[in-house]
Specification:
Elements lengths: L10 H11 L7 E2 H7 L5 H10 L11 E2 L15 H13 L20
Parallel strand pairs: 1-2
Helix pairs in contact: 2-3
This protein binds a DNA duplex through helix 2, helix 3, strand 2 and helix 4.
Length: 113
DNA sequence: CACCTGACATAAT
DNA sequence: AATTATGCCAGGT
């Protein structure tokens, strides 16, 4: 029973989700790269779209990290159990983490032309 | 290393 | 309908 359900996703959100789906397992992308790929110069708009994440496992929003390769946020939180969950998923997918909790530079996915 | 500014879309007023 | 406020940033000073 849909209570607090999702509203119709906007074109922008859909765009973000689609691009995110292009990221293979074991790799991660950044908000900035994703945004630039969509022609959007703002990474925050990306985060806002992901934050709503209507499609949880369908859209691997957990494969998105900060431009500094930081873990970034998740489920609308920048810290907390949700974040730990995100890290766990990435590690489960084969993403390597540095001792600082940052993602390995080699795990960054590059978008095709 | 801390702070402020910039760019963009959505939600709320 | 228009404006204000905010948000899983980025980048530069």
């Amino acid at each position: 029973m849909p209570t607090a359900n999702h509203r119709p996703p906007t074109a922008f959100e859909t765009r973000v989700y689609e691009a995110l789906c292009r990221v293979p397992v074991g790799k991660v992308t950044t908000y900035g790269r994703l945004g630039r790929h969509l022609g959007c110069g703002s990474a925050q708009a990306i985060g806002q779209a992901l934050r709503r994440n209507p499609f949880a496992p369908e859209v691997p929003c957990h494969r998105v990290v900060r431009g500094d390769r930081g873990i970034g946020g998740f489920a609308g939180q920048t810290d907390g159990g949700e974040i730990e969950r995100k890290i766990r998923m990435l590690r489960a997918e084969g993403v390597a983490f540095e001792a600082d909790g940052r993602v390995a530079a080699g795990c960054l996915h590059d978008f095709p032309g």
